[in-house]
Amino acid sequence: MIEFAVHGFTQDLASSERLQDVALACKSLKRLELAKISLLSKHIPEILEATASHCRHLEFLILPRNLEKRSTVSGPSIDKVMTTLYAAMERWIRLEA
Q1: Residue 21: exposed, middle, or buried by beta-carbon count in 10 A (0-12, 13-18, 19+)?
Q2: Cα separation, 71 vs 68, whole angstroms
């Protein structure tokens, strides 16, 4: 089983093209852990898109949680994350059917 945990980014890894390359190299990825990245990071949607495109066998996706326990997350940043997450999940579900 291939597992991949993302803890942080350098500028080299942060480009969409580089994320696509990483996902392409991990086609057999079973578990992706993003818990150490901010939920509102601009990289979360890019990672989800790359993973949904290339990692067809993903079984576990660990997302970050809101570290601000007293506030809810709202606004365009979380909307983009959720829209991208739903689209990625639809792709993975279609691939299983």
Answers
A1: middle
A2: 6
Q: Pairing relation of β-strands 2-5 and 60-62?
A: unpaired
Q: What is the pLDDT of residues 19-34, one digit of tens each?
A: 778 788 888 888 988 8
Look at strands 29-33 and 2-5 and give their pairing.
Answer: parallel
Q: What is the pTM of this model?
A: 0.77
**Angle (nearest 5°) at CA 76 between 34 and 94:** 55
H-type alpha helices, 1-97: 11-14, 16-25, 43-54, 76-96
